[in-house]
Amino acid sequence: MKIWVDADACPAVIKNILFKASQRTRLPLTLVANQSMHIPRLKWINLLQVAPGFDVADNEIVKRLEVGDLVITSDIPLAAQVLEKGGHALSPRGELYSSDSIKGCLHMREFKESLRAGGIDTGGPPPLTAKNRSAFASYLEKFISQYKKDNGQ
């Protein structure tokens, strides 16, 4: 099992949680981004820098994803593709996407896009809260623990 991060938009505090978890568990962690960024110098933590462009990082994650891998993203279409390929998707806010919940998320995204196209400002997402960080860390820990249990580790 590998952990993939849609890293360009991932908050630094979430990356730090992921770095600590990867360092503790030695699970492979790959940040995929259009730009260079600082990561810990550990052999199981990698940065995959891709060319600039719309969905280039997302497409690379989907291309390399294996069944059972975990992807950290707030990108709803990417999360849907991850689920279709048998992966798991978790938002930096601690929301685990499922095949049931992703449909509603996609519809809401399309609705907000149509409002923005009509000139209505829908605003951005609210700031990441301590509750979001806690939910993320909690789900990540449960996911890793279950993976290790299922694989006799």
UniProtKB/TrEMBL annotation:
Transmembrane segments: none annotated. Pfam families: DUF188. Belongs to the UPF0178 family. HAMAP family: UPF0178. This is UPF0178 protein DO021_03070.
